[in-house]
Every structure is written in structure tokens, then in C-alpha cells.
Design brief:
Layout lengths: L1 E6 L8 H16 L4 E6 L10 H8 L7 H6 L1 H12 L2 E5 L9 H10 L6 E4 L4 E4 L5 E7 L17 H10 L4 E7 L6 H17 L1
Parallel strand pairs: 1-2, 1-3, 3-6, 6-7
Antiparallel strand pairs: 4-5
Length: 203
């Protein structure tokens, strides 16, 4: 198993998504000693944002790219190669203001690229993901209860967005483990963390 872990919380201490991810990975490695693990921390080391040159380079044919264009895509290529190396993804993505952290959005903008992770047929308007065959696991803590299906679930633009964008590049086998109510009383917080931990250990 090749596991790519992406962490996006800006908190390095006290982060629920980080601590639950660590527990999951230790348990996974204990059960599967051959597991290979790579970690990308976009919370503490944000990805480069696309620029005007980056966009021009992205849509240029590879053989038409100038040295400057190639350089502009270097970081993106590294992130894509990491993604394509893995067969399992573990994403620690806390909900920030009803959506994903801005650093994680920058990460997605680097890896969702035409002819690298998806193709588009202008004749039929058909998209096809190129990262098929991979499984995704998302741990997503939130301040309140924004779990899809609850009264505030229609405000959840975090895990719903992640399911769509991962599916767009071909990763359709996605499991979301929410950790709601993290701004509630300690009793409620700990109960939700324990519930999420049990789900992860089950997985």
C-alpha cells in the first residue's frame, strides 16, 4: 500500500485532524507493515499559487513550453507525481468558514490539471479523470454540526466539494469521517472525537 497523507490545518498543536490522522496511520502500519507513507503538509508549508505564467504554461503543449514555463510548473509537477505515486489518500481537512482551508484550495489548484489529472474532449464536452483506481479518506473536523443530512448540512462546502473535485480527477471511492461540534462543550467534543476515532479504527 502506498499512502499519501495531506494535512491542511494551520494548527500544529491541538489539531484534531492531525492527531486522528496520526492514530490512523500508526494503526494501519501496525496491521500492514509494508505500507509506504509520504506526508505533504500544506497547512504549515503552503503550496505556490498559480500565476499568469503558470496558467499559460498549463494550457501550452509540453513541447511549446519555454524554460520559464517549465519552471513555473515545477512545483505543480512535484505535487502531481506524489498524487499519482499513491494508491490511497488520507486528507486532513478541517472546515474553515464552511469550506476547505485556503492552503488546501491552492493544493487542489496545483493538482487538478488538464492532461495530467483529467482530460477534456471539446467535441463532446466530456471530462475524464486520470487518477482512477485510488481510494480517498477525508477527516474533516468542524466547529458545529455541518454533517450532510443535518439541519446545517446545506452549508457544508467542505467534504461535499472534496467529493466532487476528487471525483473529477477520477477518485470516486471516497470516505468522509466528520468530527463535528468542536466548538461545543468538552463533553460533546470528546464524544465526537471518540466516534470519529472508532470509525477510523474500523476502517
Amino acid at each position: 500500500m502506498k499512502l499519501l497523507e495531506i494535512q491542511s490545518s494551520v494548527r500544529e498543536v491541538g489539531s484534531i485532524s492531525r492527531s486522528l490522522s496520526d492514530e490512523f496511520i500508526k494503526s494501519l502500519q501496525a496491521a500492514h507493515s509494508g505500507t509506504q507513507h509520504q506526508r505533504r503538509d500544506v497547512g504549515s508549508n503552503p503550496p505556490e499559487h498559480p500565476t499568469d505564467l503558470w496558467v499559460k504554461a498549463n494550457y501550452a503543449l509540453p513541447e511549446k513550453r519555454s524554460p520559464e514555463m517549465i519552471a513555473a510548473l515545477t512545483h505543480s509537477e512535484t505535487l502531481i507525481e506524489e498524487l499519482l505515486w499513491a494508491d490511497h489518500l488520507l486528507l486532513g481537512v478541517p472546515m474553515y468558514n464552511l469550506s476547505v482551508p485556503s492552503t488546501f484550495k491552492a493544493y487542489l489548484d496545483n493538482i487538478v490539471r488538464i492532461n495530467r489529472t483529467f482530460t477534456f474532449d471539446p467535441a463532446t464536452y466530456a471530462f475524464q479523470g486520470l487518477a482512477k483506481g485510488r481510494k480517498g479518506l477525508i477527516i474533516t473536523p468542524s466547529s458545529g454540526n455541518f454533517v450532510v443530512g443535518t439541519p446545517m448540512g446545506n452549508m457544508n462546502f467542505c467534504d461535499t466539494y472534496l467529493r466532487v473535485v476528487l471525483g473529477f480527477i477520477g477518485i470516486e471511492d471516497v470516505t468522509v469521517v466528520p468530527v463535528p461540534d468542536q466548538f461545543m462543550s468538552d463533553e460533546i467534543r470528546q464524544r465526537e472525537i471518540a466516534t470519529a476515532r472508532a470509525k477510523l479504527m474500523n476502517l
